[in-house]
Description:
It contains 16 helices and eleven strands. The radius of gyration is 31 Å and the shape is elongated. The chain starts with 9 loop residues before the first strand and ends with a helix. By secondary structure, it is α/β, with parallel strands linked by helices.
Amino acid sequence: MYLNDDYGAVYVREKGELRYVNADAPQQHRLSFKLCIDTSPSAGHGKRSDHFIFTYNKEGSLRYTVKSLFDISLQFIADHIEHVDSLVGFPEQMADKLFSVAEERHKFTNPQTAPRALQLFCEAYEELVLKSLCLRNRHLLISERLEEIKQFQSLESLDLYGCRLGDSHDIFKYVTSDALASLVKLFMGANRLSDAGLQRLTAPIRVMKKGLENLQLLDLSENPITEKGLGYLTCFPLLKKLDISRTNVKLNVTLKEFFRRKMGMVLSETALKEFAHSDCKTEGWAEQVINQWEITASEVPMKEDKPKTNALRFYGREKFVCETLNSLSRTNDVTKEDKVLVHFYKLDSCGGIASVEHNTHPTTVATVQKGKKRRLSVEVEEQSTVPLAKRQSLSALSAEDLDLLNSY
């Protein structure tokens, strides 16, 4: 390239270097520097090679093609998903791809970005992100990923069987919140749940008329609940199927009469298939995310026991063996009772077993909630015309219920 007086100095780039061209003085100095992209530490990934697709042709030569601008844009958004304000109005087809890219970027497994990333998708796409969640026997996963689990706001089925929750686990506030007003199936078996825990679980709907108002199926098997705790279940207006197998409840005529008169339910002569957990599964975009959480939790190294703990285990070995043998003997004594399944169900209009219906439309829950709010406002107006003494008797709450309300 020749130098022209009209244009001034001319530079030519060759092999990544800029060379100054001057026809009159070819031996002049050379100005050179390398062109670098995303090589600064702030780029975070060094040189970007994920914008290219590498393939081999028939001859075995390596070929590469540039990804489309759409794919590159999705990668950029996924890398900074925690900084996005909202995904409301973003097309579902693109959101599905964006979720997959963010999953590949480990945005849902990183504790720093996972809660915010899941919140964005759940607020915009609700049941598409996760419709059914099975955490059966995964108590460690619940403890480590509770903040992430709380972001799922449109679940219809939740299986917490065997998670050893007890009566005061933090997940109860999530289960009884408005976020899970769409919940239809709840499995709480083998969770060491007593009458106090059942009171806590039903407090929001009993007192404030919110929470598990759409619940139709409930599993309370293998929990130390009694007849007193069953009285709290009358607050579920849509409950159709109940499992209280292997509890401290005694099956007799009085129990059957209680369910028939208070809840309109009868004892099933055969086991109900819904309580076999065969159909319970994790379903939605986040299915693989849950599996990845479990893999990550299993890779956490176990802490070494302290010397004091080892000494206690050694000297307390005899007591441990005795307790184990006693528990085994008690298990053998009640083996026959454990096989008895106590399933109750509500009769439909034709006298058969009422089926559990899922919410097919996302707006169903919102419509029900608005209707209930309007109905509650009418009830408040009606109660305002009732004498003061009668209103006080209607609104009387126990001290335990007031304590539970304060906890929420």
